[in-house]
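Protein data sheet
==================
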Amino acid sequence: MKKESAATLQPQQKMNAFQKFISQWDLQILVLPGIILLLIFSYLPMYGLIMAFQQFRLGEFPGMSEWVGFKHFQTLLTDKIFYTALRNTLAISLLKLTIGFVCPIVFAVFLNEMHQQGIKKTIQTISYLPHFISWTVCALMMFEFLGREGSINEMLTGFGWIKAPIGFFEDGKYFWWVVLFTDIWKELGWNSIIYISAMAGVDAEMYEAADIDGATRAQKMWHITVKAIKPTIILLLIMNVGGVLNANFDQIMMLTKQMGNALLTERADVIDTFVYRFGIRDQRFSFATAAGLFKALINFVLLLSANKIADKAGESALF
């Protein structure tokens, strides 16, 4: 009897799920354009990855070229320029993953401690604005600020901290820090939004109880505010680790073009610019596809590893 009742319930449960799907037809239509765009721009282009295993030539249909196996991957792993690009990518990404990732958290925590709503909203608005500036405009602004005759050099020489202007755009040793500075300046306020939203859900009674126990302001910030947004921090950290080989192509391209210095290639060339240069300029499409696929696979492995470590440590995991 129990088996029969369970068997009769399953079709009814499936029917109810189907009916619920049909009853929400208006919501399904809203989701449909997003699904179509995802298929067109994210899944269909995956077919082109087979070029990494072929000798593709312009004009040929992907998949119809001569198969060469792992030839392009072998060439890639013996290319000294690729290892230079890999080093630069890792250096820039690790700077962003440490300093750049922590700054929005610190900014959100201190902003949450402000009780003057007018000042708080003004600071929030000012910090959000750079996000909406394109990297092209941002590169021009940075050239004006950090050029030899820019305001930063004028300020440093005016205070007597340096004797001669620093060539931020002429010496490659400054490039990684210029990239980090511009990324923090542009995305600090925008990246802090999710942390501020997470802090809004913290129960005010926890702060009141901490006041009764004699906790200092710093202790409340660490033991209540930071602990409350810890799951959000872990999730975003996992996602950032999964994109550690993405060094922001737009930012690097605009800054290097604005600098216009060939000597910066030693510090400015990242995997994305490496793929762009060999794929578009030199028309080595299969080789560039192999480099892009290599980067995607490494990112995927890092994402799975970071998620597994977080799950084993008892933290919030993506899946």
About this structure: The mean pLDDT is 85. Strands lie at 54-55, 66-67. The chain is about 70% helix and 0% strand.
